[in-house]
Amino acid sequence: MGWTELFNEANSVGFMLLYFRFAALFMAVPIFSHQNIPMTHKAAMAFFFTVVFYPAMPIVQIDINTTAILLAVLGEFFFGLAIGVVLLVAFNAITFAGGQISFMMGFSMASAIDPQNGVSMPIISQFLSLIALMVLLELDFHHWMLLFIDGSLSKIPLGGFLMTHDFFDYIVHASANMFTVGFMIAFPIIALTLLFDIIFGMLMKTMPQFNLLVIGFPIKIGVAFVVLIATLSATVLIMQRHMQEAFNALEMFF
User: Fold this and answer.
1) Between 125 and which of 80, 89, 98, 217 could a Cys-Cys bridge form, CB atoms 3.0 to 4.6 Å apart?
2) Model confidence over 154-190: pLDDT tens digits?
3) In the chain, what's the furthest Cα-to-Cα distance?
4) Burial of 159 (0-12, 13-18, 19+ CB in 10 A)
5) What angle is formed at CA 68 by the lines to CA 67 and CA 70, rounded to 5 degrees?
6) Is the Cα torsion angle 130, 181, 166, 250 positive or negative in sign?
């Protein structure tokens, strides 16, 4: 292949669209979209993987004009954002669970900046979010996404992505399932803290000198931490299965 054929209009537009597909991936998908990764590094990684996957790029099927290219670029961005929404909805189940646990433990005011999203969240949500990131790395989730993009090149032409009703139906179902999974993770601590609240209420009725702030809250927090540690392995398994189901759901784009 000569230089003239390598840098013709179709190949140049295809390279640009492939770059935007990877750029959207690094902007929206968990792990890749981490706020601690500078934007320049994300852009460099997108360019690197564009060069690596360029030989596998199919021939561009769109018209070479300004309007068609702009629509194709928007399509690539929407493709990456759609993938990110599907995975973030599943990922946020652990954040929701951490918020419920923090509220029951009395830690709702203790917050920290989440390095994944760059927003403030309760400290238990921050802890579980970091655990979830380690679970994704243990699952080789970053490799899954690169393989998914490789498979999408043959299934979804560059610039040919279209939103379907299946995507919106899945988001509605996944959003409801997010609360179900989050409550499932937080349920042992919620149930135990509610039981302690009942016991402390009965003690305060029978023993008015019982100081709930001095004695009750430290006991409840300590027991909640013990339960959190005891159920951490089960939480990891639930999160692992939930993220695998979300990744398998990406087949709806094909």
Assistant:
1) 98
2) 888 887 777 778 888 888 888 888 888 888 888 888 8
3) 91
4) buried
5) 65
6) positive
